[in-house]
Amino acid sequence: MLLSVEKLQIAFGQFTAVRDATLSVRKGQILGLVGESGSGKSITATAIVGLLGYVGGHIASGRVLFNDKDLTSMSEERLRRLRGKRIGLITQNPMTSLDPLITVGKQIDQATRLHLGLSRRAAVERSLALMKDVRIPDPVKVYGLYPHQLSGGMKQRIVIAMALAAEPDLLIADEPTTALDATVQAQIMRILVELVKERGLGMILITHDMGVVAQTCDEVAVMYCGRIVERSPVHAVFATPRHPYTEALIRCIPRSTMQTGTLVGIPGQVPSPVALPKGCSFHPRCGKSQSICHERVPEFRQGQGHAGVACHLVESL
Ligand code: SF4
């Protein structure tokens, strides 16, 4: 297994933001980590790459095994070498990853020289090859351009090239297409899927969009209020979603057969993480809630393979 996260508990001071998160990623596999804003997806990814300390959090318990090495007990120095080299990060907004004052080609050079120790000439050759890999037309011309001279989609391709610069084993893409329009979104997702499959990488794709999960992921972990509430292969979760929250997210996918004005949402709001309702956190929004749901937090029941669900109504998997 490339990555195994086992019963991860993330805290900010006395406040627990993520509880018992367990997930895994194999080589060549794309895991979708899905949920609304505030569900704990991005903070889980932050913990995996060892950056929690920079946002004031810490791992209270659990393990993060990457290539069988426990990242939670690794020194900051070793973690820093690992980040960017073995684990590539792709953020939502390419402008936060790119320096506006340096040409994009030189920025890819910097990443390869830092992590692979290439000569200046070898770094340029590698940057041009990476630009070709992320389907940038005319890499020689684009090499000398500044970020503001590129479209949003082209900037995100540069960020993907930088994430690939050191030949990582795992990519973590946090809402990589949210800032882009629909057609460019589809192009970027296609490039990412092809790269993962061609190179045998693992990828965690963080998204709020089950439509993107359906088109790109092999497995999905659905998060709500800091817990994973359902884990399943993607084909199974779309055929028979077990958790009412997963069902609700799937209902929200716009379909071409829908009539104008029929977009579906999930009623109510995600509760404040510092004032979670007693019992199942989803009960104020759940059409199937029963009295037990108001009293007891449902346990995560493990089924076959990696499947599992946390809901009082699901007896067996
Ligand atoms: Fe709904 Fe109860 Fe299941 Fe929570 S435990 S999702 S409230 S049915």
Keywords, separated by commas or semicolons:
binds iron/sulfur cluster; 22% strand; 2 domains; 4-stranded antiparallel beta sheet; globular; 12 strands; 8-stranded mixed beta sheet; Rossmann fold; 11 helices; alpha/beta; single chain; 317 residues
Q: Main sheet, how many strands, which sense, barrel?
A: 8 strands, mixed
Ligand inventory reads: iron/sulfur cluster
Along the chain, the helix and strand elements come as: EEEHEEHEHHHHHEHEHEEHHEE
Number of domains: 2
* Mean pLDDT over the full residue set: 92
Find the CATH superfamily of the largest domain.
P-loop containing nucleotide triphosphate hydrolases
* Count of individual beta strands: 12
- Radius of gyration (CA) equals 20 Å
Q: Ends: how far apart?
A: 23 Å
CATH topological fold name of the largest domain: Rossmann fold
* Uncertain segments: none
Main sheet: which strands, in order across? 6-7-8-3-9-10-12-11
Helicity, as a percent range: 25-40%
Summed up, what is this model?
With 317 residues, the chain is α/β, with parallel strands linked by helices. It contains 11 helices and 12 strands.
Describe what you observe in this structure.
With 317 residues, this protein is α/β, with parallel strands linked by helices. It folds into two domains: 25-50 and 170-309, P-loop containing nucleotide triphosphate hydrolases (Rossmann fold); 89-167, no CATH class. The protein has eleven helices and twelve strands. The strands form two sheets. The chain has an eight-stranded mixed β-sheet, sandwiched between helices. A four-stranded antiparallel β-sheet has the order 2-1-4-5, covered by helices on one side. Helix 4 (104-116) packs across helix 5, helix 4 (104-116) packs parallel to helix 7 and helix 5 (120-133) crosses helix 7 (152-164). The chain is globular. The two termini are 23 Å apart. The model has no long low-confidence stretch (mean pLDDT 92). The site of iron/sulfur cluster has 13 residues, from loops.
